[in-house]
Design brief:
Elements: E1 2-3, E2 34-37, H1 43-57, H2 65-72, H3 79-82, E3 83-87, E4 93-100, E5 112-117, H4 126-143, H5 154-161, E6 167-172, E7 176-181, E8 190-194, E9 200-204, H6 206-211, H7 222-231, H8 247-254, E10 262-264, H9 270-279, H10 282-288, E11 296-302, E12 305-314, E13 321-327, H11 336-354
Parallel strand pairs: 1-8, 7-9
Antiparallel strand pairs: 2-3, 3-4, 4-5, 6-7, 8-9, 10-11, 11-12, 12-13
Length: 366
Amino acid sequence: MIGTAHHSPELRALRDRVTAPSSIALPTAGDGLTWRPVTAADIGLILDLKRAAGKIDHPRSLVMRDELEEEFGSAAFAPERDAVIAIDAAGRAVAFGSAVAPVSQETIVWVDLDGTVALDRRGEGIGRALLAWQEARGLQHLAACDKAPDMFPSPIIDFWLTPSTTSRLLHEDGAFSVTADAALDEDERLTILTTTDGKTRVLLTPAVAEAVGLEDGQPVDEAGFRQRLEKSGISLHGADNLFYFTDEARETLFGEPDDPSIRPLTEADAGVFGQFEEAASEQDLDDASVELDHWAVYGAFEDGRLVCVASMYPWNDAPLADLGVLTLPPYRGKGHARRLVRAISRHALWWCRRCRPRTYRPRPRR
């Protein structure tokens, strides 16, 4: 597993770490095009552009006008500053791009980039010019953010970074370290953790250390270690990103009510859960690993149908839990997953404040 576990305490606020241009010139790419800032009057032109391009770019989904109207009405979106459009001589929108910073960014700060170029005008450098404008506007958003990294609670730091009594440090150079631990289970025999301070830590069993030819104190860097893994025929699962609620974010979470569409799921919901599984792809079920017999299971309903499920289980004796969430494809993009994750997280935090969850061993993944 490769993941991001915590924020480095020495990091400063984003505005002190990001350099952004004070002004951004409009793109000029494309013969016969007029570039200008976007206004709400352009919604129809943008809709036509997105639908025409969408027939090739994403043929299974359709952009709706009310989606665009909702975006333009959002407090986070200032069209005249956050978006540009290119119009040809016939008055048709040939390109559209936006860079929007969501209002609520509790544990991670990001900017959403959305862009489209007409199918018949691709290959002229319009997309590259549009992306350059979007990236510059995105940097302006980040440079305007005064959010400083929050430290995660000590149990999280301790879980990931504190060595156990059975561990043995094989190598450390400030940026890369390797630790062997004979007490690791077979399914935990190799973990690679990369944190936002740029450091990478490897935890492995003595057997894996022997397989890749590592000995106490032997110098090795990350690139060399990964080469040894490859030569030894040891492959890794896909990377996971690890996110946690900070102290401040947890207090905000506790103050929110559950959405009326959300409720806990129990054995009595086996029928609707089965229908949910039948409607989901095998790959989605495997990736999300949501199960009705997990320690906590919540569902979101739309028009009486179960459309999103989140489940979690504690990690043995650690005060942490693994969470999976899955929304059926036709119901994605409506906020079900976000509301559901917050609801089940609120339940877990409430439970931890009152009584420690029992030790739980989940069933193996599919």
